[in-house]
């Protein structure tokens, strides 16, 4: 134990993940979460969805001891707050009102992907004591970067609870959030899932699904590595049309990004293709899978049908998770409307270092108050769950 406290680590920053071996990265982060895989992050960079020009300049951290890599961390220099989903716009506005620069800032996250996972990958043989020591040293290095480069802050977003505890032990600012995830309570099929609900909630869902049934739509899940170019192009067309309609642009992710992940990690992807009775593509959704989780990420529609979003993004995912014995279905950020459809409130965690002392104190106070509100909100959402009894 004493020896671990005297270990000397070296730190370097690289401006592309291609400077780090795929085997090293995926060994340190594991394969449980598809979004922390080297292939996913590399596709973001190679497609230029993540770059200096898009405000996501890679600045990944490599921690070594001698010739051995002991830890790796995705890191980006950000010139805005888009695509993060832990919202700090009010903090940026406060800086601006005081004639201070909030950007650039440093962010450790998976770009455009608000899913919980590891935000630092460790050498598998590293002890818990040494992991804590590494994280403490990383915070010291980050603070030096902020001071030296005159950046405002560092933000570690959506880390899992065990890792967040390690960050919290260094005295950083903690922030909590809430998402809604579906749990598989050993359901046999969708009807078994519905039978766990109160009569009124069960009827509401059945009514929503009946609308889609009348439309005679066909839903087909396709493994990403088996999908044809035409099917991928169809998904991209749906994705871009819906983003354009909703946000005025074609989305953060390009056709080239989707082409790359189809090539390099298609086995972790499920494309949901939705056709009408005339066999015309009307909508599509993109899911990712791990051994335990189903992740719903993107969807789009070429035609409008009442209830199609709920069917494509929630009910089809629940059916898939049940059929494949997956434990959790994470359908994306926000959305308390998910509660009525059986999704539980789940706490999320982020860590923050603010360089400016006065703003650090103010933001820490804000986050402390916000935690109390999040706790109360989650309790209220739990009370609104549609189940007959607590599951």
From TrEMBL:
Cross-referenced SUPFAM superfamilies: Acyl-CoA N-acyltransferases (Nat)
Pfam families: FemAB_like
Signal peptide segment: none
Domain of life per record: Bacteria
InterPro entries cross-referenced by the UniProt entry: Acyl_CoA_acyltransferase (IPR016181), FemAB-like (IPR007434)
UniProt name for this protein: N-acetyltransferase
């Amino acid at each position: 134990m004493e020896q671990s406290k005297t270990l000397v680590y070296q730190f370097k920053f690289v401006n592309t993940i291609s400077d780090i071996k795929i085997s090293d990265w995926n060994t340190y982060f594991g394969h449980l979460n598809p979004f922390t895989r080297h292939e996913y992050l590399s596709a973001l960079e190679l497609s230029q969805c993540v770059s200096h020009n898009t405000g996501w300049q890679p600045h990944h951290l490599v921690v070594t001891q001698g010739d051995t890599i002991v830890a790796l961390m995705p890191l980006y220099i950000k010139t805005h707050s888009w695509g993060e989903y832990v919202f700090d716009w009010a903090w940026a506005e406060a800086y601006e009102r005081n004639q201070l620069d909030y950007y650039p800032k440093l962010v450790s996250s998976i770009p455009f992907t608000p899913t919980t996972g590891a935000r630092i990958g460790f050498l598998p043989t590293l002890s818990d004591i040494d992991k804590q020591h590494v994280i403490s040293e990383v915070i010291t290095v980050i603070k030096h970067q902020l001071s030296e480069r005159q950046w405002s802050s560092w933000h570690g977003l959506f880390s899992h609870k065990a890792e967040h505890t390690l960050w919290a032990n260094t005295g950083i600012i903690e922030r909590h959030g809430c998402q809604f995830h579906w749990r598989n309570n050993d359901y046999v099929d969708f009807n078994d899932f519905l039978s766990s609900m109160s009569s009124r909630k069960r009827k509401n869902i059945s009514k929503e699904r009946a609308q889609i049934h009348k439309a005679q739509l066909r839903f087909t899940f396709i493994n990403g590595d088996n999908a044809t170019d035409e099917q991928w192009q169809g998904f991209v067309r749906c994705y871009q049309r819906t983003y354009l309609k909703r946000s005025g642009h074609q989305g953060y992710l390009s056709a080239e990004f989707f082409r790359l992940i189809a090539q390099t990690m298609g086995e972790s992807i499920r494309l949901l293709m939705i056709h009408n009775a005339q066999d015309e593509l009307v909508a599509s959704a993109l899911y990712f899978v791990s051994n335990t989780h189903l992740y719903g990420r993107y969807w789009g529609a070429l035609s409008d049908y009442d209830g199609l979003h709920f069917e494509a993004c929630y009910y089809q995912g629940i059916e898939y998770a049940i059929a494949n014995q997956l434990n959790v279905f994470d359908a994306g950020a926000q959305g308390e409307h998910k509660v009525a459809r059986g999704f539980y409130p789940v706490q999320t965690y982020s860590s923050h270092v603010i360089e400016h002392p006065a703003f650090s104190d103010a933001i820490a106070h804000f986050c402390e108050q916000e935690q109390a509100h999040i706790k109360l909100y989650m309790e209220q959402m739990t009370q609104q769950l549609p189940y007959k009894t607590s599951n």
